[in-house]
Design goal:
Length: 628
């Protein structure tokens, strides 16, 4: 490739983070190049065949409102759709789609081509930097590409090392070359890196499974799409099957722990605590008589089956023998063994809340390179990095999402302020304002940013504005309209609720747990602009706002109280060494992380309320900046 000087943004890596970053930058009219080591792998879902899940489904909806494509591609390749956590409160209900991995990848690549995104096959090994500002990337072989901003989304490819028992393979993913050079370059300019580990389970032959021994698991009867842009959603409902390990499985694993890379005595990076290997499950939770295995198809009529719940680095022969102790898997055959993979990441505390490096202007990092794990976490970072890289080039104000705005805001805030000693996965419990961050109100929370940064087309914006307006109108109607005893008492009695003796506002009665809007025969919200899925979501969201109004209002009061600290800026050149009344540990954390606001400073691990009080005193003094 000849040297090019006309790219404004170069995105390195074509996984979920890279694809979102490149597409949104391109959509905003910025000349963008996506560089991938393998053009055929762009958009690849390299691990489990699913998009969404607990908290992750909310992030997919958020990415969608911000102009991202993960939810839309998932809808077009869905094999089964289900809402998880429905036995709990509505704030943690989470959509999840089982997908056809091959179709998802194909759609992603076709879309990139259709919108005119430039994709180049090559390996980036370094950057050109002048005066602490990015001005290009260096390719393996010596060629260079000039640009104004770079987004690094290298996944598990940075010095990737696969472990299968005692066997080690240098690779970024199974069967794919690793990347070498970027870590070394970034280290040479002062950025600090570490090592993390993640794992994946075996892939087995469908024909080798006795499916009658498993329990069928289907999706929702009335599935809802992940994307607001999906107009017709009639997915297949292919079943997954549940199997369970048993005593013999556990005994065999414990007898062969020495064959696991993680238990062999060799030094390994830290893996995800909340997605443990089967070895960890059996060894650390010996009281559990069995563990669930979910067998999931990887694509339509797939002979390759994903064994969810059996992530492992045991030797291949031991993996197979262990699985063959499970009822229904006695004759199971491998297509590919499970493995653990170690890779380099860069401590995200070195980033601003825009995902731009604090040290190098125009350098953005997104995805597993920041220590996260999961498609949705990668996609969420990719969309923010892509938007802000384009803002950097266009000299616009960057997009910053706060913790009360979105799960994406929680994700980025946690990454840049908290220690990354294991791969970060998003959970609803990480969000203190999760009642505000429902999957059903992503449009209400984030549409203003989509409009401000021109992230969605006019038709989609008009549709979402109309949906939000209809929701507000319905809530108002429920709050203002009264219902007579004769109109509702029969239904109340049927539901085991106390009857009313005089007319009451519908909203008051609707707060009773068993009742839904449909019990009141409210006229529907039909509109030419809205499809059936949006109409259902309007009813659900209006009902939720009524039922949870007290909790939502109290949480909003909490948010308003701390807003003053979120808006209190700490100058970049603030001199923490002038503060004599805090511990050396606290001072070191402030210096290393360089919080941008007092609100961020409060959330740093180990920082005490007294440290913040002292910080506030010094912020008001004239000698708080470093002397030149």
């Amino acid at each position: 490739m000849k040297r090019k000087t006309n790219y404004a943004v170069v995105v390195v890596g074509g996984g979920h983070a890279g694809l979102e970053a490149a597409l949104i930058s391109h959509k905003r009219g910025v000349k963008t190049l996506l560089v991938s080591m393998d053009k055929k792998s762009v958009g690849r879902t390299s691990c489990n065949p699913a998009i969404g899940g607990l908290a992750k489904g909310q992030m997919v909806k958020e990415v969608d409102v911000l102009g991202g494509i993960m939810g839309f591609f998932a809808d077009m390749s869905t094999l089964q759709s289900k809402t998880l956590n429905m036995s709990k409160g509505r704030s943690v209900w989470s959509p999840r789609s089982q997908i056809d991995k091959k179709l998802y990848e194909k759609i992603a690549q076709q879309h990139a081509k259709a919108v005119g995104l430039d994709v180049f096959e090559g390996e980036v090994v370094g950057l050109n930097i002048k005066k602490n500002r990015v001005c290009g990337v260096k390719l393996k072989g010596g060629d260079e590409i000039s640009c104004n901003a770079v987004v690094l989304t290298c996944g598990t490819f940075l010095n990737g090392l696969i472990h299968i028992g005692k066997k080690q393979i240098h690779a970024g993913r199974y069967g794919e070359e690793r990347s070498k050079g970027i870590t070394e370059f970034l280290n040479s300019i002062g950025l600090t890196s570490g090592r993390l580990k993640t794992g994946t389970p075996p892939r087995i032959k469908k024909s080798s499974v006795n499916w009658g021994a498993g329990e069928e698991d289907f999706g929702d009867k009335n599935p809802k799409p992940l994307s607001y842009r999906t107009k017709n959603f009639k997915p297949k409902d292919e079943p997954c099957f549940s199997f369970r390990t048993k005593k013999e499985t556990h005994e065999m694993i414990l007898e062969n722990l020495h064959s696991s890379a993680m238990y062999s005595g060799k030094s390994m990076a830290k893996g995800p605590r909340y997605c443990p290997s089967i070895e960890d499950k059996v060894y650390k939770f010996k009281q559990n008589p069995s563990h669930l295995l979910q067998l999931e198809p990887e694509w339509t009529r797939s002979e390759q089956i994903y064994v969810n719940g059996f992530s492992t680095s045991l030797s291949e022969d031991v993996q197979l023998k262990c699985l063959q102790t499970v009822s229904g898997l006695e004759r199971v055959e491998f297509i590919r063994p499970g493995y653990a993979i170690e890779y380099d990441f860069f401590h995200p505390s070195q980033l601003k809340n825009t995902l731009e490096s604090k040290a190098i202007d125009g350098l953005f990092l997104a995805g597993q390179i920041n220590g996260t794990s999961g498609y949705e976490e990668a996609s969420s970072q990719g969309i923010i990095a892509g938007i802000n890289a384009s803002c950097f080039v266009l000299n616009e104000k960057p997009l910053v999402l706060k913790r009360e705005d979105a799960y994406i805001g929680v994700l980025i805030d946690d990454l840049i302020l908290k220690d990354t000693n294991e791969p970060y996965r998003m959970f609803t419990s990480r969000a203190e304002y999760r009642l505000q961050l429902r999957s059903s109100n992503a449009d209400q929370r984030l549409l203003k940013y989509a409009k401000e940064y021109n992230l969605l087309n006019d038709e989609t914006i008009e549709t979402l504005l109309h949906k939000i307006e209809k929701t507000e109108q319905l809530v108002k109607k429920l709050n203002e309209t009264s219902i007579k005893p004769v109109e509702i008492n029969e239904r109340l009695a049927f539901l085991g609720e106390n009857e009313i003796k005089e007319s009451q506002k519908i909203s008051n009665i609707l707060k009773r747990p068993p009742l839904t809007i449909k019990d009141f025969k409210i006229k529907n919200t039909r509109s030419k602009l809205l499809n059936n899925f949006m109409e259902d979501e309007i009813l659900f969201e209006a009902e939720t706002l009524i039922k949870y109004s007290g909790y939502i209002n109290r949480q909003q009061e909490e948010i308003d109280k701390i807003k003053v600290y979120e808006e209190m800026i700490i100058p970049n050149n603030f001199n923490y060494n002038e503060i004599k009344s805090i511990s050396n540990e606290s001072r070191e954390k402030f210096i290393n992380i360089k919080p941008q606001t007092v609100g961020q400073a409060q959330r740093i691990n180990g920082i005490r309320p007294s440290d913040i009080s002292i910080l506030l005193v010094y912020l008001r003094r004239p000698f708080h900046v470093k002397q030149k």
